[in-house]
Each structure stands twice: as structure tokens, then as C-alpha cells.
Amino acid sequence: MNVCVIGERFLIPGATVTRAPRTRGFTLIEMLVVLVIVGLLAGLIGPRLFGKVDSSRVQTAETQIKMVKGALDTFRLDVGRYPTEAEGLAVLARQPEDERARNRWRGPYLDGDIPLDPWGSPYQYGIPGANDQPVALYSLGADGKLGGEGNDADIGLLPRAR
Description:
- The chain has 162 residues and is α+β, with helices and mostly antiparallel strands.
- It has helices spanning 28-79, 99-104; strands spanning 2-5, 16-19, 124-126, 136-139, 155-157.
- A three-stranded antiparallel beta sheet has the order 3-4-5, with helices on one face. Strands 1-2 form a two-stranded parallel ribbon.
């Protein structure tokens, strides 16, 4: 009589004892091969995914600029002028100091606070804008500096060159 022994609990006197086959784990070489394959896949796919993240930030900035520009236009229709540079974009969320403008103000013109750009910086606002635009409303891009190319380029209604 053969008995498969998993532990020492099932020993039957006079029986031939056979051990259960041992289950093997992964060898070091197998684990290294898997790690190399995962590393190669990450190296091929990772840059493409990060490129999509950067382009989605640019699209988000463009969308937010259009939204804030719409709020600026509504402010202009109510008050009769765009916010001054001193008032900035904050006047879209709270009443202006100027009493004449305060009486015509019908805000807030945005739901919630003034958004930050996708890189965590405030949007830049000024008067006048480039190309006969009445205002400049833009993000400084990924580098946070005026000018640049690619992801570092400024996005939106840019200021007039000085």
C-alpha cells in the first residue's frame, strides 16, 4: 500500500511512504528574464504615454483659456470694459474696487476659483494683446518662462511684443 504523505499526520504503519512532488518556484534566471522583458516594454511604451500627457496638458490649457476668455467677455458686456491689469483675473470671482464697475458687476463669472494652468502656475493677463486682441491671456507653458518651443511654448492669447 502506497500513501502519499503531505505532512507527518497520515502515516499508516507498514505502508510504503512516498513524498508528494515538490512545487517549484521561479528560478533567478526566469525572474531576470521577466524583468528584462518588462523593462523593454516600459522603454518602448513609456515615452509614448508621457508624450500624450504633455499634449493633453497643452489641450487643457487651451480649453481653460477659452473658458476664462469667455468669462472676460461676459465681464466686458456687463461692466463695459475688460478688467484692468491691476484688477487682473481675480475680478472675475469677486467684485471690483471701482464703485461704478461694482454696480454693473454681475459675477462671479467663473464657477469656483480662477484655475491654474496644467503646470500649476497662474495664467498671465494683460492689456492689450498681440495681433489686435483686446487682452492677453496665456500660460507660460511647462518651463514657466516667456517664449520657448514645444511643451515650453506659451499658449493662448499672447501679449503684444514690447
